[in-house]
Amino acid sequence: MTAPIATNVVPGLEPTLPSSWYLKDKYYALEREHIFMREWICVGREEEIPQKGDHRVLDLYGESILMLRNEGGEIKAFYNVCRHRGARICPAPGDDDSVLALKGGIVGKRSIICPYHAWSYDLNGQLMKAPHLSAETGFDVKGIALHPVGVACWGGFIFLNLTPGQAPDFEETIKVAKRRFSRYPLADLRVGKTISYEVNANWKVLCENYNECYHCGPVHPELCRIVPAFREAGGADLDWERGIPHRDGATTFTFSGESTRRSFPGLNEDERVRHKGELIYPNLFLSLSREHVTFYILQAKGPGKTLIDCHFLFEPHEMEKADFDPSDAVDFWHLVNQQDWAICARVQQGISARVHERGVYAPMEDWNLDIRRYVSDRIGPHTGQ
Description:
Strand content: 25-35%
Order of helices and strands: EHHEEEEEEEEEEHEHHHEEEEEHHEH
Number of helices: 9
Shape: globular
C-alpha cells in the first residue's frame, strides 16, 4: 500500500500559497495578466531620461514599451507598436536594423516615426502625418494615437501601468512609503552604482524573503553584526515604523557600520541611526540608510526565474567629490544580496519536491501574509480553485 504524501500542514501556523503557484506556468500566466499587466510596476528613475526626446525601450513581461520625455518635460509611455500595421516603431537594445533604409524611432527628439510606412507621431503619441493619406480621403489624424501606458512618478521613481484604463489609484499604491519616507530626499538622489542579478527563484519567494528577518541569523551573519536586532528572537517584534537600530557605534549598512558620507539633511534623530525598509508591491524593494538608499526592481521571467536590478542612490553633493567611493555600501549589499539569492534558489528547489504541497509561516513572518493576500486577491478568482 502506497504511503500518503505529506501536505506540510503544521497546526497553529498559517499556510503559504500552494506550492504550485510558485512552480507552474499557468499561475505565472495569471500573474502576468492580473498583476504585472494591471498594477503599477516600477521601471526605473527619472534621471534615466532627463532631457526632452530622451527615451528608453523596455521589455516588460513580453510587451515592448516606449518611454520618453516629451517637449513639455513630462514622461510619457506607449506600447511600441504603430497604429497602422503594427510594426515595432523603436528598436529594442541589441536589435539589428542595419538593412532598413528608414530606421524609425525617435527622430530629432521631436517625433516618433514608424520605419514601415513612415507614419509620424508627436512625443505625446498623437499621429501627425501619414504619407499619401489626407482629410480629402476621409482620413483624420486627430483620432489616431499610440496606445498609451499609464505613467506616475514619486521620489524620482517611474511607475508604469500597462492597462491604464483600469489602473488602481497610484496614491494608494505608494501612500505608506510616501508617509514613512517623507524626510528622505529621494527625488534628489542619483544612481551611483547598479548590479544586475538573475535568480533561479519565483518572484514571490524573493518578496517573502525580503519581508521577514527570521532567516537573517542563519543567512546573514555580517548583516546581523551591524543590526543585532535582526537575529534577536528570530527577528520578531521589529519596529519598522520607527526604523531598526544599528549596534552601538554603527549608523549605516557598510562592513564597518559607518561612512564618511554625510547624513541626508532633514532626517530626524531616529533616521540618522536607524534603517527603514519597504516593499511596494509587486516589484520594488526599498532599503533606506542615513546616507544611501538601495533599491531593487524585480522582473519575473517565468515561474522559476527573476531578474533583479539593484541600484544604489547617493546625494549628488557626495558624488561630485573627487574621492567619492560607493564601494563600502555596494560591497556590503552585494554580499547580502548573494546570500539572499542563494537561499531563495534553495527554496525554489525544495518546494518543487512532490511531497511539498505548501509551506507555513512562523509567527515572526506575519508580514509575509501580505503577499498571500495580495496575490490571492488578484489571481485567486481565476484559478478555478
